User: Which sequence fits this backbone?
């Protein structure tokens, strides 16, 4: 048998074992409640497990809920289950949390889930507002005393469900805050702005951050357009320097942009070893231009005015806009089609909101 066929055969066996394991756990899980007329009756020091095994931006916008629950239960033992893609948020979480990583490796995850199942988990909170088979698996495997989730296709995985607010009308952060209701917390009383641990670093006057990477390739501008944006901002004296931020995989593209700009005031930031280093570097910027949602929410948390580029998909979805900070939103079906003039124009609008006198001086 060839190596590729052997891998496929092994994968089938792994999936069969996984299904059998989940099936057995579902029968051993507690029966659903689904209706909740009053707040959960919890001890003063409950153990609360939060599931957030997806992306960095998703983890950041979950922080207002974490803070609200920790404020209500300051003696709680909070556990955050993160994934490989967003585990970097651990250093910046605003509340004390035990961190557990879901690695998408059957045998290591099986061991992790078995250990969690043996512990007394009072409440499991699924922070996903989209249906997730992974969340269903985790909920069934852990079998917490209560499991809370938003009403969606996999709602049967939870013992308590909260309403899914209109995705077109409500910001993702506000939709997630419905998960506070079972704890006796009014979602309307919770500030929407993302909350990250303070980073003791000063903002550098005149520095603009230009993020060239995005989680989705369709949201990344071409190197030529990014070069023109950086050059135009410097030429018009809108900034004293432009710092280019990128994912390590886009390092070569960042070097190309800095090289084509051929200006000592346009430089590529050093590679960040951790997400907290990346956030600290962003915090030094007076303004940020980005197609990346994790950078958007870092800007919200640290009060950095930002130009956001995004594609409206699905068209009815409420945009993941920054909260409690000045911003300009550029939404195009294909962000790649944007030209530098459009982006610079929106940057000028942002300057008008934040520093109108600076813009007046440059146009005299």
Assistant:
């Amino acid at each position: 048998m060839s190596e590729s066929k052997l891998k496929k055969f092994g994968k089938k066996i792994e999936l069969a074992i996984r299904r059998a394991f989940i099936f057995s756990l579902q029968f051993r899980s507690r029966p659903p409640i689904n209706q909740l007329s009053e707040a959960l009756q919890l001890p003063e020091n409950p153990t609360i497990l939060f599931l957030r095994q997806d992306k960095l931006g998703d983890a950041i916008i979950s922080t207002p809920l974490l803070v609200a629950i920790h404020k209500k239960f300051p003696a709680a033992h909070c556990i955050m289950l993160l994934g490989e893609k967003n585990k970097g948020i651990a250093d910046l979480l605003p509340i004390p949390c035990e961190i557990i990583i879901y690695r998408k490796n059957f045998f290591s995850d099986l061991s992790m889930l078995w250990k969690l199942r043996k512990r007394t988990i009072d409440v499991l909170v699924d922070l996903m507002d989209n249906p997730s088979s992974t969340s269903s698996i985790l909920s069934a495997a852990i079998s917490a005393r209560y499991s809370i989730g938003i009403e969606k296709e996999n709602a049967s995985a939870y013992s308590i469900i909260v309403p899914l607010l209109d995705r077109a009308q409500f910001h993702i952060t506000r939709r997630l805050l419905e998960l506070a209701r079972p704890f006796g917390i009014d979602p309307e009383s919770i500030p929407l702005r993302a909350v990250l641990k303070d980073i003791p670093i000063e903002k550098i006057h005149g520095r603009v951050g230009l993020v060239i990477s995005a989680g989705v390739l369709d949201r990344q501008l071409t190197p030529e357009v990014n070069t023109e944006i950086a050059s135009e901002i410097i030429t018009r004296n809108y900034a004293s320097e432009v710092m280019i931020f990128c994912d390590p995989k886009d390092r070569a593209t960042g070097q190309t942009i800095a090289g084509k700009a051929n200006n000592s005031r346009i430089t590529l930031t050093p590679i960040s070893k951790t997400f907290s280093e990346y956030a600290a570097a962003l915090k030094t910027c007076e303004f940020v231009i980005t197609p990346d949602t994790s950078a958007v929410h870092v800007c919200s948390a640290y009060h950095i005015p930002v130009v956001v580029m995004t594609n409206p998909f699905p068209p009815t979805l409420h945009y993941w806009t920054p909260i409690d900070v000045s911003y300009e939103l550029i939404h195009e079906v294909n962000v790649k089609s944007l030209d530098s003039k459009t982006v610079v124009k929106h940057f000028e609008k942002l300057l008008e909101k934040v520093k109108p006198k600076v813009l007046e001086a440059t146009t005299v």
Observations:
- The domain at 207-363 is CATH 3.40.50.2000 (Rossmann fold).
- The two ends are 75 Å apart (CA to CA).
